[in-house]
């Protein structure tokens, strides 16, 4: 078995500056503007101060900006006062003078006084150079690590030392020289400011690297027994409580092997969407995928989907052929099907282990665990145990009494109670760490799933957990990341809007209309909300665009109703309590709320709504068919043949022939003419339509060359709506 490296993708920051501007206090704006008013008009200076707002790293308490007293003094200073102040040796340096000073030292730092008790900022913040806003830079990702020197950071990012130093001053950090080490958090802060993505690398040098348990995800087709297998493994019965048989709740648990003292961590995932979503967010948590295939059903569409997910994630598979207790079980057939899909099973000389199990009878589970441990040994899974923890969120939920809770899996290091953490864009101090049995513990080591308490907000599944040294640093990083996420979100929304507008334009040129179905998703846990949103997006079709305008955790609130009303959205409430006054408010707000606990019922309801909303496409349909039995010529006034009109004496063989329809003449299956109907008569009477089995006389536009045996089709325009299609396997789609 080849060793596979699972890349620990760090924080992918695609920081595009100048889009959403973080605010500095208005007073600080005034201060900056007054500094600039020396050389330029006040209005220009003011607008520049506003512009700077986009680049200043505004810590929440704005410590890095001058005090209010100095601000007001500077703001009211006249040009003369400012000119006099230029001679004053104790005055603050302007940003230009500061820059000159650093340039003079040819990239070296000017000799600054050692750290004093004064506030860290003595000069106005110098924004990074504007030409660095290029898109290419924002997409650049650099590795950062604890203790890297400023010079190393400058080399990797391509940013000048002078600019880096000025940002450092602004965030309250002082460095004596470019050879001084900066912390990994400071490196991320710097990167955020200059618009570069970072990947956090933790050195393992000097620390103990020990084998760690594998983290396993169970995947497979619906109803093949994933939940039952997980239940059997942990010997509890979540499946019995579950509605609809699809796993709705993301969790994790550890199965211990008493003999060897080893253990396996199982993730309980709500489906393939969550697996790929977590990976997309950089959380490569899963080491091994258990592919569950029912012995009586074989390889099904979602089995193939699971294989594709595991392959794209480069994660090894262990196959569990389940339901082997059933009379119709045929494990050999399953093996052949898997082999046909390119899965190199051990039975046929490959390296993918196969185990026959029965989740219901709890047989073969020990063999499955053995196979997983063997795979883990093959993979040589190891992690650093000491030092700051790196972890990923697998689930997050709001608890009424305890606030935001997150289930996380530690990837490396040790998470200790009381530490300050940043999770995605949220932060907090670890008030409590609980193991999967709910028992409080003071630390969590690699591959250990724990629930943490003490966060200020709800993180998302797949968010990275990093430990920082202080509350202040946690707040700073969280603020910076929030701004970055908001910029990314706006950028994405703008890209989507432009793409949608272009699409609409192209469609309207083709006479095709696409409408939007805005949806708000509410769910009990974050992971499920994401999974539901992903499932709804699969119903996107060329005619109806499913737009998830918001997704969140908890019951449907008034603000959800207001939001839905504002954008004409419907609300999907999945696995959340509803009813009572909420229903009444929804009715008053005339907002459609869909309460569901089973994903397929939800998709069915939304599918119907999509079909209802779809404008449909206009198509020509054969309404009837007539056969030409005889031909009559009616001579014109000059009684010449060319001047006359041919009348086809026909019998309607199928459907109906209408006067208003388009006519199509076929001879030996070939279309010879298409045109409107000039006259339709039945026994000399003009009629609008003639039904099946009746005879009629028909004149077609310019066509005079009828022959006995020709077929005339009557075409009518119909509006064809899309169809909601659900297969037996549970897969659903909108067919246009
Ligand atoms: P999931 O959708 O893949 O999570 O499937 P479930 O675990 O919900 O199982 C679907 C159905 O298969 C349930 O009715 C289970 O009782 C049944 N089932 C699961 N495992 C076995 C098994 O080993 N043997 C038999 N006979 N039935 C099973």
Describe the structure in your own words.
By secondary structure, the chain is of the alpha+beta class. The chain folds into five domains: 139-199, no CATH class; 207-381, 3-Layer(aba) Sandwich (Rossmann fold); 384-468, Translation factors (Elongation Factor Tu (Ef-tu), domain 3, Beta Barrel), CATH 2.40.30.10; 514-611, Rossmann fold (3-Layer(aba) Sandwich), CATH 3.40.50; 616-718, Translation factors (Elongation Factor Tu (Ef-tu), domain 3). The protein is built from 20 helices and 33 strands. It has a six-stranded mixed β-sheet with strand order 5-6-4-7-8-9, with helices on both faces. Strands 11-12-18-15-14-19 form a six-stranded antiparallel beta barrel. Strands 24-25-30-27-26-31 form a six-stranded antiparallel beta barrel. The radius of gyration is 35 Å and the shape is elongated. Mean pLDDT is 74; it is low at 1-91, 93-138 and 236-250. The chain binds guanosine-5'-diphosphate. Guanosine-5'-diphosphate is lined by residues 220, 222-228, 239, 245-247, 322-323, 325-326, 358-360. It is found in: Mitochondrion. Keywords: GTP-binding, Initiation factor, Mitochondrion, Nucleotide-binding, Protein biosynthesis, Transit peptide. This is Translation initiation factor IF-2, mitochondrial. Belongs to the TRAFAC class translation factor GTPase superfamily. Classic translation factor GTPase family. IF-2 subfamily.
User: What's the gyration radius in Å?
Assistant: 35 Å
Integer count of domains:
5
What is the quaternary state of this protein?
single chain
Bound molecules: guanosine-5'-diphosphate
Going across the biggest sheet, name each strand in turn: 5-6-4-7-8-9
Overall CATH architecture of the largest domain? 3-Layer(aba) Sandwich
Helix content: 25-40%
Give the integer mean of the pLDDT values: 74
At the first level of CATH, the class of the largest domain is Alpha Beta
Largest sheet: 6 strands, mixed
CATH fold call of the largest domain: Rossmann fold
Domain Tr-type G: 211-382
Subcellular location: Mitochondrion
GO molecular function: GTP binding; GTPase activity; translation initiation factor activity
Keywords: GTP-binding, Initiation factor, Mitochondrion, Nucleotide-binding, Protein biosynthesis, Transit peptide
């Amino acid at each position: 078995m080849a060793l596979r490296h699972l890349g620990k993708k760090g924080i992918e920051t695609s920081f595009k500056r100048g889009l959403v501007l973080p605010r500095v206090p208005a007073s600080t704006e005034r201060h900056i503007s007054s500094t600039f008013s020396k050389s330029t008009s006040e209005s220009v200076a003011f607008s520049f101060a506003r512009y700077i707002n986009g680049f200043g790293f505004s810590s929440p308490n704005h410590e890095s900006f001058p005090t209010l007293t100095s601000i007001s003094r500077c703001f009211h200073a006249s040009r003369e006062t400012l000119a006099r102040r230029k001679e004053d040796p104790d005055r603050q340096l302007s940003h230009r003078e500061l820059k000159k000073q650093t340039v003079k030292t040819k990239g070296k730092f000017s000799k600054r006084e050692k750290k004093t008790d004064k506030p860290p900022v003595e000069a106005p913040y110098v924004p990074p150079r504007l030409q660095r806003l290029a898109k290419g830079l924002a997409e650049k990702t650099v590795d950062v690590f604890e203790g890297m020197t400023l010079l190393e950071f400058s080399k990797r990012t391509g940013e000048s030392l002078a600019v880096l130093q000025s940002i450092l001053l602004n965030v309250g950090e002082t460095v004596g020289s470019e050879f001084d080490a900066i912390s990994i958090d400071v490196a991320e802060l710097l990167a955020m400011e200059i618009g570069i993505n970072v990947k956090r690398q933790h050195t393992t040098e000097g620390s103990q690297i020990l084998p760690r348990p594998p983290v396993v995800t169970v995947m497979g087709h619906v109803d093949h027994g994933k939940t039952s297998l997980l239940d059997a493994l942990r010997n509890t019965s979540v499946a019995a409580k579950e509605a609809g048989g699809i796993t709705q709740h993301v969790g994790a648990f550890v199965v211990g092997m008493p003999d060897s003292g080893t253990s396996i961590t199982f993730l309980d995932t709500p489906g393939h969407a969550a697996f790929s979503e977590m990976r997309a967010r950089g959380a490569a948590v899963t080491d091994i995928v258990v592919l569950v295939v029912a012995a009586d059903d074989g390889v099904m569409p979602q089995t193939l989907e699971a294989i594709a997910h595991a392959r794209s994630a480069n994660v090894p598979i262990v196959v569990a052929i389940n339901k082997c207790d059933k009379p119709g079980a045929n494990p050999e057939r399953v093996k052949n099907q898997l082999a046909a899909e390119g899965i190199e099973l051990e039975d046929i000389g490959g390296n993918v282990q196969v185990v026959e199990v029965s989740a219901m009878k709890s047989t073969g589970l020990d063999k499955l665990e053995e196979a997983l441990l063997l795979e883990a040994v093959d993979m040589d899974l190891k992690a650093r145990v000491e030092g700051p923890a790196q972890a990923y969120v697998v689930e997050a939920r709001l608890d009424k009494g305890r606030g935001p809770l997150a289930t996380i899996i530690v990837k490396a290091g040790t998470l200790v109670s009381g530490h300050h953490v940043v999770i995605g864009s949220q932060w907090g101090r670890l008030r409590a760490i609980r193991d999967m049995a709910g028992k409080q513990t003071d630390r969590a080591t690699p591959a250990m799933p724990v629930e943490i308490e003490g966060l200020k907000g709800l993180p998302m599944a797949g968010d990275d957990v990093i430990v920082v040294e202080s509350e202040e640093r946690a707040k700073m990083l969280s603020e910076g990341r929030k701004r970055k996420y908001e910029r990314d979100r706006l950028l994405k929304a703008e890209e989507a809007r432009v793409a949608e507008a272009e699409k609409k334009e192209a469609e309207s040129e083709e006479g095709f209309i696409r409408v939007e179905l805005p949806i708000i998703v509410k769910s009990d846990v974050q992971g499920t909300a994401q999974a539901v949103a992903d499932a709804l997006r699969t119903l996107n079709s060329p005619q109806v665009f499913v737009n998830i305008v918001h997704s969140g955790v908890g019951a449907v609130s008034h603000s959800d109703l207001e939001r839905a009303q504002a954008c004409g959205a419907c609300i999907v409430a999945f696995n959340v309590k509803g009813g009572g006054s909420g229903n009444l408010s929804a009715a008053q707000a005339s907002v459609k709320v869909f309460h569901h606990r089973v994903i397929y019922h939800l998709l069915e309801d939304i599918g119907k709504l999509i079909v209802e909303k779809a404008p449909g496409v206009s198509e020509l349909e054969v309404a009837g068919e007539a056969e030409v039995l005889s031909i009559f010529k009616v001579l014109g006034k000059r009684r010449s043949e060319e001047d006359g009109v041919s009348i086809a004496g026909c019998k309607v063989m199928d459907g109906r022939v209408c006067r208003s329809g388009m006519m199509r003449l076929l001879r030996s299956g070939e279309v010879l003419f298409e045109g409107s109907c000039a006259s339709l008569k039945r026994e000399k009477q003009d009629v609008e339509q003639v039904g099946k089995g009746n005879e009629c006389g028909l004149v077609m536009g310019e066509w005079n060359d009828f022959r006995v045996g020709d077929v005339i089709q009557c075409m009518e325009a119909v509006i064809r709506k899309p169809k909601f299609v659900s297969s037996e396997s549970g897969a659903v789609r909108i067919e246009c």
